[in-house]
Amino acid sequence: MANMTSGRIWPEKLHAFCVTAMVKAGMREADARITADVLVTTDTWGTFTHGTKHLRAYLRKVAAGGIDPQAVPQVIAEGPAWATVDGVKAMAMVPSVMAMNLAIRKAKACGIGYAGVRHSTHFGAAGYYASMAVEHDMIGLAMSNVDTNMTAPGARGSVIGNNPFAYAAPAGAAYPVMLDVALSAVAAGKIYAAQALGKAIPGNWLVDDEGLPTTDISNYPRVGSLLPMAGHKGYGLAVMVEVLAAVLTGAAVTGHVRPWAGPTIGEMTDEGHAFIAIDVAQMMPVAEFKARMDSMIREIHAAPKAKGVDRIYLPGEMEWERRADALANGIALPADVLASLQGLAEDAGLDPQALF
Fold first, then answer.
1. How, if at all, do strands 206-207 and 331-332 pair?
2. How many helices (DSSP H) and strands (DSSP E) are in the chain?
3. How far are the Cα atoms of 55, 127, 146, 172, 331 from residue 40, in angstroms, in the given order?
4. What is the mean pLDDT of each run of 10 residues along the chain (356 residues)?
């Protein structure tokens, strides 16, 4: 089988490649398309740590029994403004998109809607789900708990997950404002990427098994815990996500969440997710809201610049500009993502050169 070469890849070709691999692994095509859209959109944003790079590992989890490719998520409880979805061990993007659409429908009825998911696994980039609300002129929030990989102030070892959190808000002439962050100093995916590329990491990303800062990633994640973003502030926000995404939904909490890869690949991860939509139109005319957003964005853009800086970015602005370039010119995938897709092609018996 030919090795993948460098070069830009059209998003639609990458999407089709991923769908084919998932269908061959036993997923329904509709579910595969949902999953591929989440992953490819993430790559177009340039957030390569959470895009198609993970698909090979997801499908290995399918093969090991940790994800049920034929599962059909179910709404198990709901009220006028809320719902709880059982992910029943499905590929996480499927119940996540379902839940965010539910939150949007609830918001249209009540002004604000919440939908939680339990019995799920790694759902990719939280920003994808938050930005779904923007398409309906709503503000969106998305979050998930994950297996314990982050320490807490004063602790030795991992206490809680670095629980990702995202929000997105529509604007008028400007791009939507969007923030998608793990609540650790850095996403764990960036450490794995550094391992794969043989690169060093800064000294404020990890602590060792004694709770002291370290740059040694040779045995991560077996040894080492992520530091919270902004110390106690990131830790406090991670607890908030744990409450909304796991305690409230009935998902596993803190140390009871199983890692989605590694030795526990064949087990149900049981992560929880939470999705919130706020319907702008029920609180303010949408045109007025968007005009106010544009005014805020212009004011921030016009703020005095630090020496040597010629531009101030809004959250998400870089990602939307990268996406516009990717849609027009193709995605320039980094070497570690190409290597993962090469491996996926070998696993699935696909020709990787079909991507180029």
1. unpaired
2. 10, 12
3. 10, 13, 22, 25, 9
4. 69 98 98 98 96 98 98 98 98 99 98 98 98 98 98 95 98 98 89 88 93 93 94 98 98 97 96 99 98 98 98 98 98 94 96 87
For the entire predicted model, the pTM comes to 0.95
Count CB atoms within 10 A of the CB of residue 195. Answer: 15
- What domains lie within the chain, and their CATH numbers? 1-64+337-356 (1.10.1530.10), 70-184+228-317 (3.30.1370.60)
What is the predicted pLDDT for the residue at 1?
44
């939470």: which residue's tokens?
Answer: 274
Residues 6 or more apart whose CB falls under 8 angstroms from that of 198 comprise none
| Element (DSSP H or E) covering residue 341 | helix 335-348
End-to-end CA distance of the chain: 15
Integer Cα distance of 241 and 279 in angstroms: 21
Provide the pLDDT for residue 4: 61
Spatial distance between the Cα atoms of 52 and 301, rounded to a whole number of angstroms: 33
Q: How far apart are CA 205 and CA 201, in angstroms?
A: 7
DSSP secondary structure letters along 236-266: HHHHHHHIIIIITTT---GGGSPPSSGGGTT
Give, in order, the Cα–Cα distances in Å from 225 to each of 126, 184, 306, 351.
22, 10, 34, 38
Residue found by looking up tokens 């061959």 in the block: 24
Predicted pLDDT of residue 356: 81
Q: Is the dihedral of CA 194, 148, 144, 165 positive or negative?
A: negative
Q: How many CB atoms lie within 10 A of CB 171?
A: 20
Question: Which residues make Cβ contacts (< 8 Å) with residue 286, sequence separation at least 6?
Answer: 137, 170, 280
